[in-house]
Every structure is written in C-alpha cells, then in structure tokens.
Write a structure and sequence with these properties.
heterodimer; A: about 110 residues; mainly beta; Rieske Iron-sulfur Protein; 4-stranded antiparallel beta sheet; 1 helix; globular; B: about 850 residues; alpha/beta; FAD/NAD(P)-binding domain; 5 domains; 5-stranded parallel beta sheet; about 30% helix; elongated; disordered C terminus; binds flavin-adenine dinucleotide; binds protoporphyrin IX containing FE; binds iron/sulfur cluster
Chain lengths: ~110, ~850
C-alpha cells in the first residue's frame, strides 16, 4: 500500500510501528479517541478501545496471545477477532489497524 | 441486551442436502427447551441422524440452555455462557435445521404440516411437541398496561431474556416483591436479595413450599428464609399492582401496601398448549399422551412440561428427560416397545444458606405407613421420612441434607433400609456404621442412579472407567453425569475413584503447570532444559500445542524460566505481567503503588524524610504503612515511576511480584525485654540474601525474637522463632490471609547461618516443585511435612546441594529493577501512560 492510497482512507497515523514493542500494547490518541494498539510476536497488529468496559482497566497494559487480550485488572479476556469477551461480558470495540511505511494507521 | 446465547458467528450457514435426494424421514420438533433439545440428542445418540432429517423450532432465539441454572445466573453465581447446553454450532454440526426465534402457530394434522409465524410451512412424518410452560400471571388489577403488556418492572421468571431483564433492573432498583413462595419464588427472592435489594415475599398459602412440605417444615423454612433478611407474608393474596409507567408497589388483600420497584411473579407455570389446542389435539391440563408419549394423533408426540401422562403434569427436568429417552427409543426403533410409566420426583431448593431436599410424599397416607420426624426448630432443622412396606416413599430434609445421597438412592431404587430407622436421618456414633444399611460406594448396586438429571447409573460410570476414561472430568464428559444441577459431582468422583481403584489419572489439565503448555511442572522443566529454551516465546514455539502462545501462561513461564536460567534467561517484557513490566502494583484506577525496600521493616529518619519529600513532590494521594511493615506510596502515575525511584534512591521493595516479598521482624534482643535472639538482624540478613527472587506465588516471611510472636512468624510462608541459646525454630507453610494456617515446624536449628541455609533450601524446593500460584500453605500439606523433612534435613533424594546451587544462581542474577529501568527504559514507552484522557473510577484521596 502506498502513501497516496493511505490518504484516501479514513485512517489516522498514530505513531511508528517500533513505538509498540513486540507482544505489548501502547495507547495512542486517534481523532480524539483513545486507542490501544498491539503488535503481536507473529507480527500482526490489533487495535482496541483503550479502557476495559468492565472496570476501566488500561487494556494496553494487558497480556496477549494470538487469540485474546487479557485486561490487567481482572483478567477479562477479549478476542481479537470481534472484541467479544470469552466470558460473555460486554465486548470491546476493535478497530482496523495496519502498517503503512512504518507508520501505524488506525481507522476510527 | 440482544446477545443470543450459544449463537454462531455471523456468516456461517448450515449445508443442506438437496431435498429431493434425501430419503430420510422428516422429524420436526416444536420447542427448543430442555426436553426438545435433549430429545434430539437422544435421537442422534441412537443413530437417528441417518434416519431422520431433523428440524427444530424454538420460540427463543437462543441455542439450548439449562433453564434450571437461571437461578444461579440471576444470583450472579453463574455466567450465562456457562449454562449453554447446545450452541447454534452444535445444531449445524449435526445437520439439524434449527429455526431459532421462530414460533410455531398451528399444525395441519391432516396434511402433516407445521405452520410457523414466519409464514413457513414444514412437512413432517413425526412431530414432537416440547413447548414447555410459561409463567402464570394472575389477573390482578394494574398488572398489565392498556396494550396487554406487563407493566414495566413486572417480570416472570422462566427464560434467559426475563432473567437478563431482571439483572438489568437490579442496579437501579431497591425494593422487590416476589409473588409466590414455591421453589422458584424462593430462588428468585434470594437471588435478588443477594444483589442488595430489600425483598418481600408474598405467598397465598399458609406456609412456604406448600406443594412439597408439610405445615411444620414450612414454618421452619420460613424462619430460615427470614433469617436471611427476606420478609415473608403468608396466607395473603396480592390483589393490585400500583404504578402507571412503572411498578410502584402492590396492594395485598388485607389492605396492606408493599412498595417496590421490581415485581417478580412466580405464582406457578402453565403448560404451553395453544398450538395443540388450535390443532385439535386432546388437551386437558396439558397435552394428553399415552405411555409412548403419543397424543391422540398417531404421528404427533408431546414431551416435557407440556405433556400430561396418566393425569400427571411434571414441572421438573428429570421427568422431561425421561420422556426424551423413551420417545427416542420408540421413534428410532432402538426399542419400539419402550414405555414411560411415570416419574417419582425429588426436588431440591437451590438457595445458598437454606438446604431443602424433598422426595416423594411429605406425610403418611395410610394407617400402617411409618413416619419418623426429627424437628429442631431452633436450629432450623426438620427431617422426616415416610416408609411403606419397608420402602422409602418420601423424605423431607430441611436445614441438614447430609443424608440426602443415601435417601435418594433408597427412594429411587428401593435400597434396603436400616432396622433402626433413625439411622436414615442421623449418623449414630458408636454403632457399627457399616452394618446400618448406609451404602458405601462399593456396596451400591450397579444400576442405582447416581445422576438423576441425566439418568446415569453407577454401572454407566464404572463402564466409562473400564472403557478407558482416566479422570473424573473424562467420565463426566462421556456419561454426562454431574452435568445437570451438579449436585451429584462428589458422588461421581467417589465412584470413579473406587472404580479406577487407584489407577486414576488426575485431570491432566489440572496437573499442568500453566494452562497453555500440556505438561506437569517436572516434565516441563526437563523439556526446557533439554531444548535449551531460554525465553517464553521459545517455550511456546517448541512446546505449545501447535506452537501457539497463551496469554494466561506467560507469567508463570517467565517465573519458571527466571528460576531455571538465572541471568541466562532471555527477558521478554510482553511475557511479564504489567506489575513486573513497570515494577509496581497496578491499582484499580490504573495507577501504581511504590513500596521502597525497607529490610526487616527497619528504617531511618533520613529515609523517612526522603520518602516524605518524594510523596509531596509527586502529590502521592495516599501514604500507608503496610501489613508487611513497609511504607506504601499509592496512586502513582505510571509516567512518574522512574523519576520517583531516582528521587528515592532506594531499591524496589518487590511489593508487586509473585516473589519473595518481605521479612517482618520484631525488635528482638536489642530492645525487647523478652527477646531471646536478634530477630531484627536475622530478618535483615534473610531479606538481603533472598530479595526479589521469583517464586510460584508470594513468599512472606517473618522472624521473631521469642515465642510471643509479635511479628506473626507462625503464620508465614517461612517463619523463624528464637527459642534461646542461639537456637531457632523454622516454620513453613503458614498463612494468615484468606486462608489461615499455622506453619509446620520444619526443624529447630543452631545459629543464624543454619537458618539461612534451611530457609533457602526450603524456598528453592518450593520454587522447583510448587504449581504456579500454589502458596506454601497448600504446597506443604500436599507434599507432606515428613517428605519435606526427609528431603531437606536428611537429603533423602540427594538434591540438597542442587537446591543450594539453584538458589545461589537466582541470588546471583538479582538486580534492582528500579535502579536499572529508571536509568533507561527496558522497552520503548515502558512508562507511557495507558489511559491519560479518560476519567477513571477514582480511588478516594484521604
Ligand atoms: C428458574 C428456574 C429454575 C428451575 N429449577 C429447577 C430445578 O432445580 N430442578 C428441576 O428439575 N427443574 C427446575 N426448573 C424447571 C425446568 O426448567 C423445567 O422442568 C424444564 O425446563 C422443562 O423442559 P421443557 O422442555 O418441557 O420446557 P422448556 O424448557 O420451557 O422448553 C420449552 C421451549 O419451547 C418453546 N416454545 C413454546 N411454544 C413454542 C411454539 N409454539 N413454537 C416454538 N417454540 C415454542 C419455548 O420458547 C421454550 O424454549 C426450573 C425452572 C426455572 C424457570
Ligand atoms: C430436576 C431436578 C432435580 C431434583 C428434583 C433433584 C433432586 C435431588 C435431591 C433431592 C438430591 C439430594 C441432593 C443433594 O445431594 O444435596 C439430589 C441429589 C442428586 N442429584 Fe439431583 N436433583 C435434581 C437435579 C439433578 C440434576 C440435574 C442432576 C444431575 C445430574 C442430579 C443428580 C443428582 C445426584 C447424582 C444426586 C446425588 C448427590 C449426592 O450423592 O451428593 N440432580 N437430587
Ligand atoms: S516476639 Fe518476643 S522478642 Fe519479639 S518483640 Fe515480641 S516479645 Fe519481644
């Protein structure tokens, strides 16, 4: 994907890929909305709302695997696939995110 | 609240064979509840998938769920996901056409077609009605709005949707009235009360559970229910519901008014017979069926609560499931002669704190019926049995259900009764228990029913064991025993253990060190060493199923790898929990706590001054002395952590890790009049040596200068007590948290160095052998004190030198994380705020 294409989508550049260490998450602000962006060890990128719907926990501080994200406060698990909770709790929002020339581009 | 229980992901559709080519008979089931869905399962189990094309209509949009578990869901004890029995996927995988959310309107019995509310017409060869019941709403003034809907705030209690609606309301409601003092009403009342609502229970009859209990037992039950804080109004009808937009209260027949903002109607159920009536089937109280569950139309059957068999209509799941079995036998031809001859029902109240189990009749009916009653109203206990011709025909257990397992057996199977009838109700000490007729697991006949819900016998369970099921979990999966209400689980476990005769694997998953790597700890440690795996990602890649990582396993693996490799461990920040990533304990609002190291709880004025300055500079909302004799600065923003550590200039106190935490000490011989040993210095020495080492769970220590135990050494993971003349007692496995346990005396040793060696050896043994998150208070009893003594004191396994070396490796690998990461972050953005903009629930500043 080229830069020109990028400007034609609704994506917002929130930072550089290397701002998010492998396997971890970091919080960014995109178009006034807080987004937690994760870079898994398999290279895939994911973006979710920043605060856990259960008790406001900082999701970017959570642990991850290829399927789920765990909130650090009470270990609620949310699936990357659709943001649903594995225990049936309120789901989280997931946002499309991709890398464009080393930039993290999130659609809000 | 529109989530569909057991739904399949959007986009997935079922494959259908071409209608024309399919020669299988058409089996249509109306009603996807506990009877209908179980019937389909029973048909499939008998190979009916080959014989029939199966269509299931369900008015509810959900997959099939366990209705009896709605009570714990309403109480917040179970999650709705846990009560799904068959998801939409299950229907799809079994080639069943599930029409969820589609109501059947009528049957055209002549044309053999089902007409549904979506306009569809479905032909059938065999039709099964399993439409269940609905909550009966008595015609009271004001209970419905003008358009016939229930007044907002008024709920029945039958479906998941009704349960969800009540759960959504409990947050904003404060007072509830429950109408109906039967099983359902009591369970609803207790559930709502558990959510903090003030609950009034209104029952039209003179005593509670009048269908199952006699007056005396009912009166005792009333006292138990009232002692839970529920107000009970007996023998009075509610005549009117108040409120126009929303319920505001009810008026009782005697004129009293009860205010409420939630009204639950549990005044009985009525079978769903409208479809049958409209279709011209014979209906009395419910749809009339014969011993093969057939209605007066030979191709139409009815099962579950909508069926009336020999004059009886049941309101429990066990008979519904018996119907399902018999009908599946008949329709699949497995046993064309199968007949249902009625059920004898037993029931149990699912209310925590009030144990009620009843079966059969509650009072004698004939002159020569034997009747034994033990009534202790003060204790809320009322036990009775009714015996006819040496057989148990009824039992009531209130407040003490210890005898229920045996009585259930005796009731169901007619097991022999003890001569001394009182032994049915109480264990008499001193007598020879075995001869008293109490069946042990070994003596139970093979055909005696263990799981009443699923009709699983002892023989079925033993069969599963001999067919190779190696654990209780596998047996339960195979036989479904214990998968209904769950009250039989302990019996199932006993039988499995007996049948396996010691040859029982524990549930394999239960022995895994972490859930994501299918290996117990010793095997995992061997594999890690063998493959030279030094990072968590390498462990997943090599040992994880399919090379997959698992978020819940990372923390435990990090701890294990650090222990095994010491400084040769390859750190990966993402494998650490946030506390370890930023070396502070995360708080409910996403801030952290900072606890500087303060060895043995000893500090200095200069240290205190520095802590005070730092607390002011960073506007720390709370400064607190901890239970571990440390000072805690709470509510620190993540981005302030490194600067605070630098300003403090003190090492980390490790108040956040699954690691060696603190050593509490008393003032010991330096100052105390009673001190027999220098407990303070020994505590400081222990903390200096073992600071920060990671372990399967927290390790909290203490050293005291005499057995007065001021720093609580008897209840620590490792506790050291001076007893004079340079001698110290070393206790292990103590706890004073949620679990309270006095430590076991491991040894009495001579001199400070011996304490250091033994404590280190014990902690290393624990680190190498305990399961992840297993505290010493579980570990020590599990392994056994004698074994631990033999290994650590007599070197019975020849591993003491290895233990000492392992501990030394970890000690050598220690670095102060604050000193290290304050200078330079370990990863980019290590201390970046994760939630800067959103207002969070704030911990109040005091
Ligand atoms: C809160 C609660 C707790 C309970 N606790 C216990 C307990 O502890 N022990 C016990 O034994 N029993 C208990 N029960 C009773 C037990 O749940 C029932 O006996 C059992 O569910 C009956 O099964 P069924 O299939 O006959 O009816 P249901 O499970 O009610 O299923 C009937 C289904 O048919 C559907 N249906 C109805 N009409 C149509 C139509 N025209 N078209 C399409 N679909 C239709 C309904 O929507 C429903 O889903 C409890 C019930 C409740 C509500
Ligand atoms: C439907 C309604 C049910 C009724 C009326 C009922 C009734 C009872 C009663 C009165 C007892 C004594 C309970 C106790 O141990 O405290 C009992 C025990 C038992 N129930 Fe249920 N139960 C029901 C549901 C279930 C279900 C769903 C199962 C599931 C599998 C089940 C299996 C058992 C078993 C195996 C026991 C023996 C328990 C033991 O020995 O500890 N029951 N049942
Ligand atoms: S435990 Fe004994 S030595 Fe220590 S302070 Fe208490 S009394 Fe004194």
């Amino acid at each position: 994907m080229s830069v020109t294409e990028m400007t034609t989508t609704t994506g917002v550049v929130v930072g550089r890929v290397e701002d998010v260490p492998p396997g971890e998450g970091r919080t960014f602000v995109a178009a006034g909305v807080q987004i937690a962006v994760f870079r898994l060890r398999n290279g895939s990128l994911h973006a979710t709302q920043a605060a856990c719907p259960h008790a406001g926990g900082p999701l970017a501080d959570g642990q991850t695997d290829v399927d789920v994200l765990l909130c650090p406060l009470h270990q609620y698990a949310y699936r990357w696939a659709d943001g649903s909770s594995t225990s049936g709790a309120t789901p989280i929002r997931v946002h499309p995110v991709r890398e464009v020339d080393g930039n993290l581009v999130v659609e809000v | 609240m529109t989530a569909i229980l057991g739904a399949r992901p959007a986009g997935a559709t079922a494959l259908h064979l071409d209608e024309e080519l399919d020669s299988r008979g058409r089996l249509v089931v109306v009603g996807n509840g506990m009877a209908g869905a179980r019937f389909v399962e029973e048909v499939l189990e008998r190979g009916g998938g080959e014989q029939f094309r199966i269509t299931v209509f369900g008015d509810e949009p959900h997959g099939n769920y366990n209705r009896i578990m709605l009570s714990p869901v309403l109480a917040g004890e179970s999650h709705e996901d846990d009560i799904v029995l068959n998801s939409h996927d299950w229907y799809c995988d079994n080639g069943i056409d599930l029409r969820a959310g589609v109501r059947v309107e009528r049957i055209d019995a002549a044309a053999k077609q089902v007409h549904a509310a979506d306009g569809s017409v479905t032909p059938y060869d065999h039709l099964v009605l399993a439409t269940g019941s609905y909550s009966f709403i008595p015609p009271m003034t004001g209970i419905r709005t003008d358009d016939g809907e229930l007044l907002p705030g008024v709920h029945g209690f039958r479906t998941i949707d009704e349960t969800r609606a009540m759960l959504a309301a409990v947050g904003t409601c404060t007072r509830a009235v429950v109408m109906g003092g039967g099983l359902l009403g009591l369970e609803a009342a207790r559930a709502l009360q558990g959510h903090g609502l003030q609950v009034d229970l209104v029952h039209a009859m003179p005593w509670l559970m009048n269908a199952q209990l006699d007056a005396e037992a009912g009166a005792i039950l009333k006292k138990s229910v009232e002692s839970l804080g529920i107000t009970v109004h007996l023998d009075v009808l509610a005549s009117e519901v108040l409120g126009t937009d929303r319920v505001q209260g009810v008026v009782l027949k005697d004129g009293r008014r009860l205010d409420c903002d939630l009204l639950v109607v549990a005044a009985g159920v009525r079978p769903h017979t409208d479809v049958a009536v409209r279709s011209g089937l014979e209906v009395e109280r419910a749809i009339v069926v014969d011993d093969q569950l057939r209605t007066d139309d030979p191709d139409v059957y009815a099962i579950g609560e909508c069926a009336q068999h020999r004059g009886s209509v049941y309101g429990l799941v066990a008979p519904a499931w018996e119907h399902a079995r018999v009908l599946a036998d008949v329709l699949t031809g497995t046993d064309p002669e199968a007949e249902y001859s009625g059920s004898r029902t037993a029931t149990k109240l699912k209310v925590a704190g009030v144990d009620v189990a009843v079966m059969g009749v509650s009072t004698p009916e004939r002159d020569d019926d034997e009747f034994l009653v033990i009534s202790e109203p003060k204790r809320g206990v009322h036990l009775s049995v009714v015996i006819r011709d040496d057989r148990l025909i009824g039992a009531t257990l209130l407040g003490d259900t210890r005898k229920v397992a045996f009585l259930t057996q005796a009731f169901d199977r007619g097991a022999p009764l003890p001569e001394e009838r009182i032994r049915l109700l109480v264990d008499l000490s001193g007598g020879d228990g075995s001869a008293s007729g109490m069946l042990s697991v070994a003596e139970m006949p093979a055909d005696s029913q263990v799981c009443n819900c699923n009709g699983v016998s002892k023989g079925d369970i033993c069969g599963a064991v001999s067919a190779g099921c190696g654990s209780v979990g596998e047996v339960m999966d195979r036989t479904r025993a214990g998968k209904g209400c769950g009250s039989c689980k302990s019996l199932v476990k006993q039988i499995v253990e007996w049948a396996a005769d010691g040859d029982l694997a524990e549930d394999p998953a239960a022995s895994y060190y972490v859930p994501g790597i299918p290996m117990p700890k010793p095997e995992l440690m061997r594999a890690i060493r063998e493959h030279d795996l030094r990072s968590v990602s390498a462990v997943f890649a090599t040992l994880g199923p399919g090379g997959k990582d698992d978020a819940r396993s990372k923390m435990g693996l990090t701890s294990l790898l650090k222990m095994i490799w010491g400084s040769d461990y390859i750190p990966e920040k993402d494998a650490e929990f946030i506390n370890d990533r930023v070396h502070g304990n995360i708080q409910r609002d996403g801030t952290f706590s900072v606890v500087p190291q303060m060895k043995g709880g000893v500090t200095t004025p200069a240290q205190l001054r520095r802590i005070a300055e730092v607390a002011e500079k960073y506007e720390v909302p709370m400064v607190k002395v901890t239970g571990g004799q440390r000072i805690d600065l709470l509510g620190v923003r993540k981005e302030d952590l490194p600067a605070m550590w630098s300003d403090l200039g003190m090492p980390s106190g490790y108040a956040y890790g699954k690691s060696f935490r603190t050593v509490k000490t008393c003032v010991g011989s330096d100052f105390c009049r009673f001190g027999l040993g220098d407990s303070t210095q020994l505590g400081i020495d222990l903390e200096t040596r073992f600071q920060g080492i990671e372990s399967p769970a927290k390790m909290k220590l203490a050293v005291v200068g005499c057995p007065r135990n001021c720093a609580e050494a008897y209840v620590k993971d490792v506790g050291v007590v001076a007893i004079g003349n340079g001698r110290w007692e070393v206790y292990v496995g103590g706890a004073a948290g949620a679990t309270i346990r006095k430590g076991d005396l491991l040894a009495t040793v001579e001199g400070r160095d011996a304490v250091m060696t033994l404590a280190g050896r014990f902690m290393q043994y624990y680190r190498e052998n305990a399961n992840w998150l297993e505290r010493t208070y579980d570990f020590v009893p599990r392994v056994g004190l004698e074994k631990i003594k033999a290994v650590l004191l007599e070197d019975s396994e020849g591993i003491c030198a290895d233990l000492d070396a392992g501990m030394q490796r970890s000690i050598d690998a220690y670095t102060d994380p604050w000193g290290q990461d304050a200078r330079e972050p370990a990863t980019p953005g290590q201390f970046r705020p994760a939630l800067p903009l959103i207002a969070l629930p704030k911990v109040p500043v005091r």
